[in-house]
């Protein structure tokens, strides 16, 4: 995912802001990392560039 | 309560459906119908468009002809893998895994929202439509394609057991409940006798 998407992304649970933690990037593309709910503390993984913003009760 | 109105079961169903989806789906929803629906929206180059339940990317492909800024969300990774084969994972389209009823986007983020072949699997369609209204900009349009109510005895019972079907009256009720205005419907059909698709276009009210 592109870092600029932080402008439109939010925590699906309460729509509060997310914090980005990057493990691996390629230019402005975040390949591995996580988005963390600043209020809920929920962790949403970014895997191979795709953010998984499924609420925890819907994950595999 | 249809058998797919349970998200775990829907995911399992899609895992298998995705293998044949692009071959089966054209009987209900083909390129001509999709293109006709796209024409009903006034998408400008540069508009930021969200495709909810993008699945294998059939609608996404049409949206890309209008604007470069297309975002696809789906709960099923198996469906989206087909879309990634077409568009790349991080190239032409921004992809997200997510839930239509709990969208991970800030208010007023999109110029247009498109959703085809997804509403019939949402456990609470009005909740998802409320999310659409929240994330689309005030005064902007959403377009939702679903299966039209077959209204015939045996098929009706079968239909209701599998997924949600609805008619224009029910669509009006759902979109009004979600706070939309200027709600209009178009019934599209590949040919007489084939299943009908119901296309609903509605506008989020100005502030």
Brief summary of the model shown:
Chain B: Its EC number is 2.1.1.163. The complex is a heterodimer of chains A (60) and B (207). Chain A contains no helices and four strands.
Written account of the structure:
The complex is a heterodimer of chains A (60) and B (207). Chain A contains no helices and four strands. In chain A, strands 1-2-3-4 form a four-stranded antiparallel sheet, with no helix packed on it. Helices cover 0% and strands 42% of the residues of chain A. In chain A, strand 2 and strand 3 form a beta hairpin. Chain A has one domain. With 60 residues, chain A is mainly beta. The radius of gyration of chain B is 16 Å and the shape is globular. The longest helix of chain B is centred in the N-terminal third of the chain and has 11 residues, at 7-17. By secondary structure, chain B is α/β, with parallel strands linked by helices. In chain B, helix 5 (77-87) links the parallel strand 2 and strand 3. Chain B contains eight helices and seven strands; from the N terminus they run H-H-H-E-H-E-H-E-E-H-E-H-H-E-E. Chain B has one domain: 3-Layer(aba) Sandwich (Rossmann fold). The N and C termini of chain B lie far apart (35 Å). Chains A and B meet through strand 4 of A and strand 3 of B.
């Amino acid at each position: 995912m592109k870092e600029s998407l932080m402008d439109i992304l939010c925590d699906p649970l309460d729509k509060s802001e997310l914090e980005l933690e990057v493990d691996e990037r390629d230019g402005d593309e975040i390949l591995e990392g996580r988005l963390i709910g600043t209020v809920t503390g929920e962790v949403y993984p970014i895997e191979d560039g795709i953010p998984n913003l499924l609420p925890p009760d819907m994950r595999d | 309560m249809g058998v797919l109105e349970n998200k775990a079961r829907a995911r399992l169903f899609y895992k298998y459906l995705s293998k044949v989806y692009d071959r089966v789906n054209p009987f209900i929803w083909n390129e001509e119908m999709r293109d006709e629906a796209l024409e009903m929206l006034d998408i400008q180059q540069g508009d930021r468009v969200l495709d909810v339940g993008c699945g294998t990317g059939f609608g996404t492909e049409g949206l890309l002809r209008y604007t470069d800024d297309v975002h696809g969300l789906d709960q099923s990774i198996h469906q989206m893998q087909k879309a990634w084969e077409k568009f790349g994972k991080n190239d032409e389209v921004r992809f997200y895994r997510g839930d239509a009823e709990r969208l991970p986007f800030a208010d007023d983020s999109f110029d247009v929202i498109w959703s085809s072949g997804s509403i019939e699997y949402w456990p609470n369609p009005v909740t998802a439509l409320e999310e659409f209204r929240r994330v689309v900009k005030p005064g902007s349009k959403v377009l939702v394609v679903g299966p039209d109510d077959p209204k015939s005895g045996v098929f009706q019972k079968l239909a209701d057991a599998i997924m949600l079907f609805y008619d224009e009256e029910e669509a009006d009720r759902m979109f009004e409940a979600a706070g939309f205005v200027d709600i209009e419907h178009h019934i599209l059909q590949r040919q007489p006798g084939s299943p009908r698709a119901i296309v609903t276009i509605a506008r989020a009210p100005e502030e």
